[in-house]
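From the methods appendix. Each design record in this collection lists the tokenized structure first, followed by the designed amino acid sequence. Records were kept in a plain field format so they could be parsed without special tools. The example shown here is representative of the layout used throughout.

RECORD:
FOLD TOKENS (102 positions):
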């Protein structure tokens, strides 16, 4: 089972960089995959400053992703640039999420 997770990462997310599979739950009706970003930080969409300071995290359930039953843990970062209009922002994972996406 330990070697199943890396194989699933390559199979389900071949074009998505920086994603780590946390768990896979397989039953008769569905396959549920929990993933998270493996990036150390993210750049603010307002000013471009890099941030590693995590404010919080939450689960997203993108329905237009490459696999059904996907739960994605995303982080909300604090922008460290005092002149930026954004105080916090959510990381986006290219290929899985986009702002205001469903």
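DESIGN:
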């Amino acid at each position: 089972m330990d070697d199943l997770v890396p194989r699933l990462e390559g199979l389900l997310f071949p074009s998505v960089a920086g994603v780590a599979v946390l768990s896979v739950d397989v039953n008769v009706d569905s396959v549920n995959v929990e993933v998270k970003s493996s990036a150390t930080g993210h750049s603010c969409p307002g000013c471009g400053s890099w941030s590693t300071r995590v404010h919080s995290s939450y689960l997203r359930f993108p329905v237009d992703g490459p696999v059904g039953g996907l739960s994605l843990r995303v982080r909300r970062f604090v922008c460290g640039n005092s002149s930026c209009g954004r105080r916090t922002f959510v990381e986006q994972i290219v290929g899985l999420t986009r702002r205001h996406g469903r």
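APPENDIX NOTE: The chain has a mean pLDDT of 77.
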